[in-house]
Write a structure and sequence with these properties.
The chain is an alpha+beta fold. It is 25% helix and 36% strand. The structure holds fe (ii) ion (FE2).
Length: 362
Amino acid sequence: MTDNPLRLRKIHHVEMWVGNAKQAAYFYRKAFGFRQIAYAGLETGRRDICSFVLEQGQAKLVLTSSFDPESEISRHASLHGDGVKDICFHVDDADLTFAKVVECGAEPVAEPYDMQDEHGTVRRATVATYGDTVHSLVSDGKYKGPFLPGYVEDIVETEDAGLLRFDHMVGNVELGKMEHWADWYSKVLGFKRYIQFDDSQIATEYSALMSIVMSDNSYSIKFPINEPAQGRNKSQIEEYLDYYRGPGVQHIAMLTSDIVKTVTRLMDNGVKFIAVPDTYYENLPERVGEIDESIRDLQPLGILADRDDEGYLLQLFTQPVVDRPTLFFEIIQRKGSRGFGEGNFKALFEAIEREQARRGNL
Ligand code: FE2
């Protein structure tokens, strides 16, 4: 992390604004294996919001709803549905980082302020990114509380699913805006353009998209940014933008060290994944070569594989976890590869076509 001018240490937490935080917390605990660690609400003196903090591995997920129908949180939930509001960074000095990013062109949402309780003080500031999404900057010095000031410890244990940390978080932006936001991450946060895919690489005729991956130098914070591309039918990115009513976080990828175990657990818990046709596995050995796992283990779970020059990765995407066809999760295991599974767009599409051909419909 030497060349990291803003000293973004890591993702402190991801906060979703939702319609019913209590039920959302139950879902992420029971389905995804997060344990609850903290709470803020009426019982803790908050008259306006209800907020649960969940944790698994190093990942913290915050679910917040509001009691006031006119509040920003309620309006956000009404307009976008449940969705990611804040990807919050842990920084050394929120004031300094805020000053730098604003100087580099970030739009301020909240000037640095103190959050305080009996466990100490935290400095927090917020800037805007794509759509209504924001990045908060938190420096917590010697803060000793369970999460952030205002939250009390409230532990609900859960059997975890082996999720270790956030691997990457993908933003969908409007047609023509991908370059703008890639530049923003480079100019404002000092990220590097890591990989770029255009529609010739990951277009399927049904769901074309273009993507630029922005990453900090340590590769610990990675933000791919997608925009729709022209396909035969409506792009999945366009569908997202229509239902989310604008740009926002499309998927949260979580790292595991044993994807077979993790996906098995999530499926047992009722998490629904995208359907992968058996035909996908027909050319898998030629496409990815030798891998440690057996196709016999991967195929029944629909786990996808992709290889690049550094190694391979295994991944699988859930169906949307909210009512609208917007936010979903990805489970990813990396075996050397630092890619994002771009070979799978084409491979999956071709597998679906092979199925279609067998039905005589191609
Ligand atoms: Fe992804």
